[in-house]
TrEMBL record:
Catalytic activity: tRNA(Phe) + L-phenylalanine + ATP = L-phenylalanyl-tRNA(Phe) + AMP + diphosphate + H(+)
Claim: Ligase is one of the keywords in the record: yes
Keyword vocabulary terms for this entry: Aminoacyl-tRNA synthetase, ATP-binding, Ligase, Mitochondrion, Nucleotide-binding, Protein biosynthesis, Transit peptide
Organism ancestry: Eukaryota, Metazoa, Chordata, Craniata, Vertebrata
Listed GO CC annotations: mitochondrial matrix
One GO MF term: ATP binding
Major site of localization recorded for this protein: mitochondrion
GO biological process, one term: rRNA base methylation
InterPro entries hit by this protein: aa-tRNA-synth_II/BPL/LPL, BMT5-like, Fdx_antiC-bd, Fdx_antiC-bd_sf
Protein EC: 6.1.1.20
UniProt protein name: phenylalanine--tRNA ligase
Domain FDX-ACB intervals: 484-577
Pfam families according to UniProt: BMT5-like, FDX-ACB
Length: 577
């Protein structure tokens, strides 16, 4: 019940408005509410959770019709009803109103939750206990604030055109990277935290070394020997080749720096292009670069590579990997290269380490340890070591390699150790056998996650403006999530592995990434069984779906799971059970 004070005279008050059919009560010109409040919704009398969930579901769908693009929906619920960790104590999921999952059905995400304060709503009185003129307790009640989540995209296939070794190549961008391959996070006008961190690292190192940024055209594609690259971890590409490119390669002069020079990502592909990009008589030797280290020898040949000068390359790299919150199939790498006299590599490594440590220590107050390890030792009971595919030894160089590890103080009893890069020393090669090369590779995405407190790598790639708005002007404050307690959904899949074939788990995870649009956050092997007569192996996996920035519904997940079953059956030749 709400009494209208004299100060609010002139406002429009509506009665008998059905909250599940809001658009029917307002003319189109008035369907632009900035805020919609629903305090303590209830179906009436002794209705159980099922009826109240139905009421909330219809209410949220109704709000979607009349709310502005950046509007908010406030829903106050009694203690325990919401079913989120904000409720203390938290009810069992099946016994709650599941408010976040119901809101997702209308495209809303939970952006904030705080205690409901009766005094904040002037003139409001809680009444209606069991449909009677009686008040009810609001102790422990919570106000849930929902906003619109961005819809899931439906990206069209894209052809990328570039130039490699004097030939113009075009190739189909793997579907998993269509929304990531040309985001330009490292451009001059970008406020993305990966660029801010990169610029701070470069600025600090420039005080110790003469520094030169590499602005030469470095292709996203690399041509390598099949035996030298782990095939299960590379995104192999079958490009179309034009033997005689003209003197004006596509995109040259419009691309910024060395990130995407000579590359045109703007053209969508049609069915003919798709067939051309997939045709090939033999296995391709081209793959999306998995590290900037693949460019080292090319840079040495093309530049005036003077001893003591630090050369800097930066850009995105791509790898197939298992699914986890801190394992990145695409990330921004910065590579520092320095030619030194043989025998002085150790001194250069130490100087690089000191400067990187100084920069990260100034950005990460909780940094308690910064080490350089030749191997990753067996973790002690009080530590958790996270070694990502992004910092594993690269086969491109015959070298000595060390891992850059950082340890941060955490609120719990366990210390978190993360490998955020690597430093390697290698011979300069036939160009100058008197010199050695020292390379320091830093995974900017992992560093950004550490500094800004981002727990999920996918958030770095969101197109939701609420992410970048927290880093305007290069600020690197702690990140505040705009999607709280997103619902998760679990599905299992069981199948027989083909006889005489080794199961490719990395490919299994990659298909899950692609089909689910990066919403699979965990894949767990539940059971393995070998048939006693045939010897054939059966595997059972559990997939957990959850979005970090969008509204994900149970129906969407069911469709993804169905498509996933079809894809693994076709691509991995398994037999579903």
């Amino acid at each position: 019940m709400l009494s209208i004070p004299h100060s609010c005279l002139g406002v429009e008050v509506g009665f008998c408005v059905d909250c599940t059919k809001l658009k029917d009560y307002f003319l189109p010109a008035k369907r632009n509410f900035d805020c919609i409040y629903f305090n303590f919704p209830h179906y009436g009398r002794k209705a159980g959770v099922t009826k109240n969930r139905e009421l909330l579901m219809k209410f949220f769908c109704s709000c979607a019709d009349v709310l502005t693009e950046k509007g908010e929906v406030h829903v106050a619920l009694c203690k325990g009803q919401g079913g989120t960790p904000a409720d203390q104590p938290m009810r069992e999921w099946h016994n709650s109103w599941q408010v976040v999952a119901l809101a997702a059905g209308a495209g809303f995400i939970l952006s904030d939750v705080h205690p409901f304060n009766l005094e904040d709503v002037h003139g409001y009185k809680c009444t209606g206990y069991r449909s009677q003129d009686k008040s009810f307790s609001v102790e422990g009640a919570l106000n849930h604030i929902f906003t619109r989540g961005l819809p899931f995209p439906h990206p069209r296939p894209v052809i990328c055109q570039t130039e490699l070794e004097g030939k113009r190549l075009s190739f189909q961008v793997p579907e998993i990277f269509v929304d990531k391959i040309n985001r330009r996070f490292l451009d001059t006008n970008s406020d993305h935290p990966v660029r801010t961190i990169n610029e701070k690292l470069i600025a600090q190192l420039s005080q110790t070394f003469p520094l030169q940024r590499v602005d030469h055209s470095l292709s996203l594609l690399h041509q390598g020997c099949l035996s030298a690259v782990p095939q299960s971890n590379a995104f192999w590409i079958i490009p179309n080749t034009e033997e005689n490119p003209n003197s004006d390669p596509i995109g040259k002069g419009t691309a910024r720096g060395f990130l995407f020079p000579g590359v045109n990502f703007c053209r969508d592909i049609d069915q003919d292009d798709r067939m051309k990009a997939q045709e090939g008589d033999q296995l391709s030797e081209h793959y999306l670069r998995s590290s900037l280290l693949v460019h080292v020898q090319d840079v040495i040949r093309r530049l005036n590579f003077l001893p003591g000068t630090l050369h800097v390359l930066s850009g995105p790299v791509f790898r197939k990997c298992l699914i986890s919150p801190r394992t990145l199939p695409v990330f921004h790498e910065t590579l520092f290269m320095c030619a030194v006299d043989k025998g002085t590599e150790g001194r250069c490594i130490q100087m690089l380490m000191d400067n990187i440590k100084y920069t990260l220590s100034s950005l990460l107050p909780s940094l308690s340890c910064f080490t350089l390890n030749s191997t990753v030792e067996e973790p002690k009971s009080s530590e958790t070591v996270e070694l990502n595919d992004s910092v594993r030894p690269d086969p491109q160089l015959d070298k000595t390699q060390y891992f850059i590890c950082v340890k941060t103080d955490t609120s719990d009893s366990k210390a978190s150790v993360s490998c955020i890069g690597a430093i390697s020393a290698a011979p300069c090669g036939p160009i100058n056998r008197e010199l050695g090369i020292v390379c320091a590779s830093v995974n900017l995405d992992l560093v950004a996650m550490q500094i800004c407190g981002i727990s999920d790598w996918r958030m770095l790639w969101t197109v939701d403006e609420r992410f970048l708005n927290q880093f305007i002007g290069g600020e690197l404050g702690p990140f505040k999530s705009f999607s709280l307690y997103p619902p998760s959904y679990v599905h299992d899949v069981s199948f027989w592995v083909p006889e005489c074939e080794q199961f490719d788990e990395v490919a299994f995870h990659t298909i899950a990434r692609c089909v689910s649009q990066e919403t699979v956050v965990s894949i767990q092997l539940l059971d393995s069984f070998q048939h006693p007569q045939t010897g054939q192996i059966s595997l059972c996996y559990r997939l957990t779906f959850q979005s970090c920035d969008k509204a994900l519904t149970r129906q969407q997940v069911a469709e993804m799971q169905l498509q996933f079953r079809k894809e693994i059956q076709q691509c991995l030749h398994i037999t579903l059970r």
